[in-house]
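[#protein-structures] MJ: dropping Auxin efflux carrier here for a structure pass
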Amino acid sequence: MSTSLGITLLSSFQSSLSVLLTLSYGLVAAKYKLLSPAASSQVARLCIQLFLPALLFTSLGSELGSSDSDFSKIWPLLIWSLTYPTLCLSLTYPLVRYLHFPTWCLPAAAFNNATSLPLLLIQALASTGALDRIVGSDSSQSQNLQRLRNYLLMNAMVSNALTFTIGPRLLRLSHSPKSTSMTLDEESLRDARARTDDATRFSLADSSDERQPLLARHPISSSNSIQSNFSRFRASFHSLECLLNPPLVAVVLAISVGRTEILRRIFFETPERGGILNAWLTKSMENVGGVFSTVQLFVVGSKLYEGLMATPSEKTAIPDSEPSFDIPQNSKLTLVPFLWLVFLRFLLMPTLATSAVYILLSRTSLLGQDPTLWFAIAIVATGPPASRIAALVDLSGLSEKAQHSVARLLAGFYLITPLISFPIVAAIVVCERFL
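AK: finished. structure tokens for Auxin efflux carrier:
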């Protein structure tokens, strides 16, 4: 048993090291100017708007309509995908509120790398044989590995949706009620009181002047109300636009095609069985989607180098008209917040997930008989923060020092990525115990 455990740990370490090396290639490319900052931004956008949608459509679409599809039984995964970010926020918010942790610790705690890192990791684990008992070693291995990949993609879509909906709001939370980051309700109350005081002073000063009516200020109030309603509508429309991103559209199309027999046959069956689009259109989309994981992690490496090496003169200044929610704590990365995030991401959340899987498998039948689903639930909450929190910080109005601190945080996390070997091994051992 100890020998088998040691082999599994070694295989997991090798897999995580291969992921770290893939990221380091992007860092080297940025360092020696093989990839410019503008080019890396364009490639990152290409990954999200083209490569990932192609991967989602071909992977989910082909799986959803298959005879042995287990997607009607993945509700435990979806519940956990919503639960673990909420739990991370609940544990981290008191530290931000009362112990003066930086506000960017909230998205860093809630949103881990749920796309490129786990996809590359399971690919590397499968190549070492560490997942043979979970995905099989016979002809069914490829199909089971694809199912595991699809489970990870479903979790990634939930994480992506949460990032776009609540991510920007997390950076506006303050450390104290007197912070400059007021809520909308407080600002509205303050404006209303100011208008009331102005109207009172206006009426007292001109009570003897009948030619200047007291209602003269009402059109301004009405205009402010219309402008406020328009701003709220625009914010709601922007949130909806963020949700309706290309990956989500690809998922909707995959579900529609996968659950429609005629469309599924046309896109995913062999030409002999009516798949007139499979050999050329679907295959080309598979080729494009297949490069997502590697290219995305490569770009993350280049972006980390840019964030670490950039100086204030190289950064784009934030216009004075933009609201700033920055506070002094955001401008520095100290040891205690970093250690908390490491503990949360590499020890606490993996332990909770693996323990939950063990309890559910030993006492209930809620997780069914699919070991790939067990393994997916056990590992989705593990790993470093998502690189997209750097973009959130950049767009939120935080200072350049805060952006630099987040870049250092991400670099430190990816440097210790091999620590993910231990929770991966624990997840493998738990899943194999019930096979």
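MJ: nice. The chain has 18 helices and no strands.
AK: one more thing. The CA atoms of residues 355 and 378 lie 8 Å apart.
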